[in-house]
Fold each of these.
Amino acid sequence: MRRPAVLLLSGGLDSATSGAIARAEGFELFALSFDYGQRHRHELDAARRVAHALDVRRHATLPIDMTQFGHSALTDDIPVPKERSAESMSAGIPVTYVPARNTVFLSLALAFAETIPAADIFLGVNALDYSGYPDCRPEFIEAFERLANLATKAGVEGTLRFKIHAPLIRMTKAEIIRRGTQLGVDYSLTHSCYDPQLSGRSCGRCDSCQLRRKGFAEAGLVDPLEYEA
């Protein structure tokens, strides 16, 4: 019998690969996505496509209006940076950072996991090819895992020992793409762009698009997505 696990599923390349790894390790997946007011809402359609491809047991999409707080180019009327150099992307925390987003998402994933019950939570954060987000670091994942076991009934009573899995955290984007390809991930189902066209076509110039394109190029593979530029 497969063990249940909660998968944080954005519909992007990384979360799709994380889900494929979890499935390959024998977990039965319960996917969780968030409609938090993100401007790149096409990712929610991608999340549904990926969830179907991964044959998840259940896929829940929770509404959270993080536009009430703003202060991010993904949830506020702030331009998404375009055509930045690798040096610029690695210098400081960009305006696409959504305040405390992964803390909020993991907290809700933890609540979901406790009710299933499932001791394992997977997410696709990455600390190498990432845009300076503080909630994508190993220190954050380790700290949240400690919190999970302190802040829940299941953790305190010892009925579950929560484990936060971040299998991509020390991988380059190229390594992630190669691993996903080995596992049969269909990357045409995914969406990565921070500022897509109304049609859903990726801009090709935001940080996320550039990191994705660089990853496919370094992996020696063809990105199946179409780009505006």
Amino acid sequence: MEKAVVLLSGGLDSATCLAIAKSEGFEVYPISFDYNQRHNIELESAKKIVEFFGVKKHTIIKTNMDAIGGSALTDNNIDVPEGVLNHNENDVPITYVPARNLIFLSHALALAEVIGAGHIYIGVNAVDYSGYPDCRPEFIEKFEALANVATKVTATEHKKIVIETPLQHLSKKEIILLAKKLNVPLELTRSCYAGKEKACGVCESCKLRLKGFKEAGLVDPIEYA
């Protein structure tokens, strides 16, 4: 089996990416991050999702992105705001974590090189998303080009790394329906930015999730405060 690294946060989109990679015949190697995020409860979800899918190896990288700050997800002095679903595409909310996907993909690239994986799956989206610059197609395109000159296997052995973004152009409704089709354990996923035991229901991530379930004609199986 070919191998694929899958970025797994514990949320709906990344869990769906894991299921897609498995359905496409890859031996999956999920990678998650403990970056001192406010909502690190998502890591427990990631572990449960890995167990559900019977994955053998789950890599968790510890890094202290709160030392940089600048985001409501890493700085406890910045409150998580109530979500706004209709915003200008150039408006980047305070929940954006500076360069997060660049950093995460770099770790995933290193893991891919070590295990001999030619594919990296990431659940970025450019339809129902928060406007983060590191979720946009142009970022992924540029990172893939960089990845293919950045490592020993790509620069000297001329192997290729493909950054897979199967959710890039799907609405949240479409992602949820796909997740149901692929038997993703939606009840184990966490999307809330607040980091409490129950999802807040009012942050942008919660609102996007609830909107998707409503449009899909389904009930979200997680608890909300």
Amino acid sequence: MKPSGFLMADDANQAKDASLEQHVLDLDVGARVDRFLALRLDGVSRSRVQALMREGHVTRAGEKIYDPSRKVKLGESYQVLIPEPVSSEPKGEDMALDVIYEDDELIVIDKPAGLVVHPAAGHESGTLVNALIAHCGRSLSGIGGVRRPGIVHRLDKGTSGLLVVAKTDRAHQGLSDQFAAHGKDGRLMRAYLGVCWRVPSAPKGKIDAPLGRSSINRQKMAVVAERAGRRAVTHYSVERTFSGIDGAGVASLVRFELETGRTHQIRVHMTHIRHPLLGDPVYGGGFKASARGLFDAGKRAFGEMRRQALHAYELGFEHPVSGQRLLFRSELPSDMARLVDSLELVDRTDS
């Protein structure tokens, strides 16, 4: 028997996901949407509703609803898609890995842009963790959770570059301690290269601005009031500047070092100071018109970018078992190299 008020997926289609719909009645008006749905959906907690909203599974009239505090109104209908349960333990998948260094305790990978680090909603397979399970077998550390075995830090899907993974519990603990200190004790060093719009006014600087979930779009991070976020500090230095068709600085190559490690930290901080990364699909959309200031070579290279121009190019740490100091560098990947070369060409010949 189907619960009252639910529209279940058509059994004839043998759908794996359940599609549910709830209508707002008089007694519901003014309630938070997460509370409203949790009260109506049998066996679905409020926290589960909030997770479904973050994953884009709650809609109203075809529009995704991300804000759990939104107040429901009379006559509205909310649709909830509850995905089929999946195994919490990821499986190994035979995928090519660019291994920079490996021993019995850890492995250093040069991650390509487009590869998700660990399984999550919408990315249950094809992740770096799936590849590592196949590559490392039983040696992969389980600390960090079943879904994140061996992971001590991460890079966004669209960010390329160096990433270290623990293969044993003792390596995981030692590396986690270093990443928790963010280099304050001198053991860890991480540096990124990014291409941002225009040229920051100061050649070197520090961005100290707390980060938290955006109140407008919970899928995004934003600079927020100190009481509402977590401290985030980014150090930057301008490495090169590039001229546009008007002779002014249209873009710059910037080096970043992190004092903290928040989600999307560099991307949000650079957008906050009005110098977003080129190609950033989430935080740089308002600056697409800036591409009109590029010369033709730059426009072509920018048009080929399918992600934010950010690369983790340097990673140094103390080996958690041997104590040896290790330092790795990764050249810019082809898409970013083409972009920088096209801008460099402008810098040399047209400015």
